[in-house]
């Protein structure tokens, strides 16, 4: 990855084989010779966050490793970053599309797909909260499951994420969000309720066990009544 220092690790996913993941070395990695960060309004401090492994992403990947497969199901991951959950789904033969708004996310995802000996993984640009026209390659259509981890990190007063999910959730779709107790959960529930989504929360808290670090957070499962 030109301009970046990276590292490569074997990442254990409960319920699935390990994944080989190339990520940024640390939070200090920033290379933006063409001004893409400035154009998108992403600060140098926030720019590297897509390329790091996050505990909530691992939690989502573990859930997707054991979730029953459903024939013909279309799955979308939003804010995928390094795309652990998408890679787990892809290896299981799920029709999954990974999406993110970061310009480097697709390149890292392609590399990690290659490192794990997998065929190309579908990728689209997934962006909410912007007044700009949808970029080329933006998420299109509706999905049966939309998943994401640690995507409630901002207040989102305009409810743009809820609107995005409403636009891409198929009839009877579920939305799975792993949230590490960021503090915006209650507001997001209300925003989703506007689109008739009901929520069931599941605590994911567990202490540190052997090589598994402690985690505190919740799985939020949204679904709305089927349309006739």
Helix content: 10-25%
Classification by helices and strands: alpha/beta
Biggest β-sheet: strands ordered side by side in the sheet = 5-4-3-6-7-9-8
Major sheet size, sense and barrel closure: 7 strands, mixed
Strand content: 25-35%
Rg is 17 Å
Unreliable stretches covering 5 or more consecutive residues: none
Number of helices: 6
Shape category: globular
- CA(first)-CA(last) distance: 49 Å
The number of distinct β-strands equals: 9
Element-by-element helix/strand order: EEHHEHEHEEHEHEE
On the 0 to 100 scale, the average pLDDT is: 93
Description:
There is one protein chain. The chain is of the alpha/beta class and 228 residues long. It is built from six helices and nine strands. The chain has a seven-stranded mixed beta sheet, with helices on both faces. Strands 1-2 form a two-stranded antiparallel ribbon. The longest helix is centred in the N-terminal third of the chain and has 12 residues, at 55-66.
Please tag this protein with its features.
two-stranded antiparallel sheet, globular, 228 residues, alpha/beta, 6 helices
Summary, kept brief:
This protein is an alpha/beta fold and 228 residues long. Helix content is 24%, strand content 27%.
Topology summary:
Blueprint: E1 6-13, E2 16-24, H1 36-40, H2 55-66, E3 74-77, H3 84-91, E4 95-100, H4 105-115, E5 122-125, E6 143-149, H5 160-168, E7 169-179, H6 185-193, E8 198-203, E9 218-223
Helix pairs in contact: 2-3
């Amino acid at each position: 990855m030109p301009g970046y220092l990276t590292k490569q690790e074997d990442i254990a996913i409960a319920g699935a084989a390990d994944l080989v993941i190339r990520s940024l070395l640390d939070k200090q990695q920033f290379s933006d010779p063409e001004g893409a960060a400035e154009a998108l309004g992403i600060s140098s401090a926030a720019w590297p966050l897509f390329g790091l492994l996050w505990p909530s992403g691992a939690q989502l990947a573990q859930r997707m490793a054991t979730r029953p497969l459903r024939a013909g199901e279309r799955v979308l991951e939003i804010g995928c970053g390094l795309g652990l959950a998408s890679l787990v789904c892809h290896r299981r033969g799920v029709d999954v599309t990974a999406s993110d708004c970061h310009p480097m996310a697709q390149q890292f995802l392609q590399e990690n797909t290659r490192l794990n000996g997998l065929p190309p993984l579908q990728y689209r640009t997934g962006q909410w909260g912007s007044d700009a026209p949808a970029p080329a390659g933006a998420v299109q259509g509706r999905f049966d499951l939309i998943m994401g981890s640690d995507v409630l990190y901002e207040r989102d007063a305009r409810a743009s994420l809820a609107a995005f999910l409403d636009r891409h959730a198929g009839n009877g779709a579920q939305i799975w969000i792993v949230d590490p107790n960021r503090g915006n959960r209650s507001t997001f529930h209300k925003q989703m309720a506007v689109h008739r989504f009901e929520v069931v929360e599941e605590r994911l808290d567990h202490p540190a066990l052997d090589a598994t670090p402690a985690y505190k957070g919740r799985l939020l499962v949204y679904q709305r009544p089927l349309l006739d």
